[in-house]
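Question (not urgent): is this output format expected?
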Amino acid sequence: MTTTTVYDRRILDALADHGLQPTADTEPQRLRDAVRDLYKYEIRRLRSELLAGRIPKREYAGHVVALRNRYWVLSVPLPRWTNPPPPLFDSMER
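Got this back:
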């Protein structure tokens, strides 16, 4: 049996900003791992730019803050990425 995941709209928008378009079958942890990997790549690239002298040291912190703001979705606890799915049946009194 497959689990259907209903993602919060804000999370879907943030994932789309990073080129990710999950389906209802995509596990939230897999998406979080993908976003984390993208963030790690970018933070390493940013550090390389600093070490190569292409970013002045006094501007580096601002670049890091901007990067963290772009990846705000990583600060949201995973259970909050999803909405509870709608009930399969309405409750009926008999």
